[in-house]
Design a protein that fits this description.
With 298 residues, the protein is α/β, with parallel strands linked by helices. It has one domain: NAD(P)-binding Rossmann-like Domain (Rossmann fold), CATH 3.40.50.720. It contains eleven helices and 16 strands. The strands form five sheets. An eight-stranded mixed β-sheet has the order 4-3-2-1-5-6-8-13, with helices on both faces. A two-stranded parallel sheet has the order 7-16. It has a two-stranded parallel sheet with strand order 9-12. Helix 2 packs parallel to helix 3 (137-147). It is globular. The two termini are 28 Å apart.
């Protein structure tokens, strides 16, 4: 990737922050979209829910990457919070896609975040990008989320959807909560532990996004997950081995449902998702196995 100008929405998040650091370290110019008054030339004002973007600040960008949205796992899914999750993703995507479509000099690519929640419950069945969407809150959200990028795609901008799995990192997301528990010797499987968790190291997540920015001709959905999904039981054992801690505990399904409400379905559900299109495009994972991803996070 030659030196370029990249706009990033969601730059303060786990993935967005890591992407910005990676781009800047390699000499690229990064423009951050912010909701407050910009404090420098590297910031652009936007109001995703109001549909407003300072398009002048996007001028000259080679790529626009949208990773903004309220955290799915940040709190219990009340109806009010589910509305917030949906609006933050769908309206933000619509705003950026429309802004990209109206630029006189359009970016080469619009990369929009998505999630493997698109597929819903898959059980033991392995799914790739050709699989249909599932049913329920997350699959329906992902369908609407990706659909909101329509204006950019219809304007002829190469549009990519990054269907991300569970990111292995100490600094946020589901694993950000797991590491302290396992380090304290309080880790254990959830439910019967047979549900598949499709994970990806933060390093590979960022590398995959950059690969999709650079690779001309790639568009549509790409699963950003390690090549071999593993069960919660296997992840529990791997965490214990890497951290050298016992993993004696089990969190019963009934307790999770009481504590997490509707979100427990996502924890107890099984998503056996593989990155077929990403591998076919020539991408190589630095941390393809679960122990390597855990060690990289440490």
């Amino acid at each position: 990737m030659v030196s370029s100008r990249v706009a990033v929405a969601g730059a303060s998040g786990l993935i967005g922050g890591a992407l910005v650091r990676s781009l800047v370290a390699d000499g690229h110019e990064v423009v951050r979209l912010v909701r407050r008054e910009p404090r420098g030339a590297d910031e652009v004002r936007w109001d995703p829910e109001a549909g407003r973007v300072d398009t002048a600040g996007l001028a000259g960008c080679d790529a626009v990457v949208n990773l903004a949205g309220a955290g799915v796992g940040d709190r219990r899914w009340t109806e009010a919070y589910k509305t917030r999750i949906r609006r933050s993703r769908v309206l933000g995507t619509q705003a950026l896609a429309k802004a990209v479509a109206t630029l006189d000099e359009q970016p080469r690519v619009f990369v929009n975040g998505s999630a493997i929640g698109f597929y819903g419950e898959t059980g033991d069945r392995t799914v790739d990008e050709s699989a249909p969407h599932g049913s329920g809150f997350l699959p329906e959200l992902c369908v609407e989320w990706e659909g909101a990028a329509g204006p950019a795609r219809e304007a002829g901008v190469r549009t990519v959807f990054t269907r991300t799995g569970l990111v292995v990192s100490r600094h946020g997301g589901a694993w950000g909560r797991l590491f302290p528990l396992f380090k304290a010797g309080l880790g254990g499987r959830m439910g019967d532990g047979r549900q598949y968790w499709s994970y990806v190291s933060l390093h590979d997540e960022v590398a995959a996004i950059r690969h999709l920015i650079d690779a001309e001709g790639l568009s549509g959905p790409f699963n950003l997950t390690a090549p071999t999904p593993v069960t919660n039981r296997e992840i529990t054992a791997a965490m214990g081995r890497v951290l050298r801690r016992p993993t004696p505990f089990t969190v019963p399904a009934s307790v999770l449902r009481t504590a997490l409400g509707e979100m427990a379905g996502d924890v107890l559900g099984s998503a056996r998702v593989v990155p077929r299109r990403l591998l076919e495009s020539g991408f190589t994972f630095a941390f393809p196995d679960i122990e390597g991803a855990i060690r990289a996070a440490l």
